[in-house]
Design a protein that fits this description.
alpha+beta, Structural Genomics Hypothetical 15.5 Kd Protein In mrcA-pckA Intergenic Region, Chain A, Pseudouridine synthase, four-stranded antiparallel sheet, three-stranded antiparallel sheet, 4 helices, 10 strands
Length: about 220
């Protein structure tokens, strides 16, 4: 469904470009926001504006986000590193560099394309563009990824991930010297307000996060 969001600019947010301001408050890139402005889907005080418009205190910004166009899903013979498989689910080891599901400008060569080729019955499970996929890993992250083979299994696995009852373990390289060999980091994080590709504490949409770490 189309979505409409309305923002009222507070006094301390004035003089910013509107595309920069909205990129800090919406899960959209500045390029995507500029495209919406060009299509007159973003207005200020009910008036069309340009992407270089600088916001003023108490401006009313309306953002109309249309339904995304369906992305073609074609089965592709991409090799999968299968760790486990039965009639209910599939567990694979996703390599770094493989995109999980199609997105505008990247509609082939993804894990979703490979899954449709490997298991023909996945189409439509969990959503058209994420066949059977319960959770996701970033393109440059390698690791275990779970795929459900039915809507029933998908619902139950998705609930487990949502409730954080699934224990996730990551191995990471860090720069510098760790002051502690183990500990817990509990802090709100989200997309960085200046670089949407980064997750940091400097964010407009913080989410509670707990990370237990151990140096190995």
């Amino acid at each position: 469904m189309p979505i409409t969001k309305v923002f009222h600019v507070p006094p301390n947010e004035s003089a910013k470009r509107i595309d920069h301001y909205l990129s800090c408050h919406l899960p959209l890139s500045r390029t995507a926001i500029q495209r919406l402005i060009k299509e007159n889907l973003i207005t200020v005080n009910k008036q069309n504006i340009k992407a270089n418009y600088k916001i003023h205190p108490y401006d009313e910004i309306s953002v109309h986000i249309p339904c995304p166009s369906p992305i073609p899903m074609t089965p592709e013979p991409i090799p999968l590193n299968i760790l486990y498989e039965d009639k209910h689910l599939l567990v694979i080891n996703k390599p770094s560099g493989l995109v999980v599901h199609p997105a505008p400008g990247h509609d082939s060569g993804t894990l979703a394309n490979a899954l449709l080729y490997h298991c023909k019955d996945l189409k439509g499970i969990g959503g058209r563009e994420r066949p059977g996929i319960v959770h996701r890993l970033d393109k440059d992250t390698s690791g275990v990824l779970v795929v459900a083979k039915s809507d029933f299994v998908h619902r139950h696995l998705s609930k487990q991930f949502k409730l954080h009852s699934v224990n996730r373990v990551y191995i990471a390289l860090v720069k510098g010297v760790m002051k502690k060999t183990s500990g817990t980091i509990e802090i709100a994080i989200g997309r960085d307000i200046k670089d949407r590709k980064r997750i940091s504490t400097r964010t407009a949409r913080p989410k509670h996060s707990i990370t237990n770490f151990r140096v190995i």
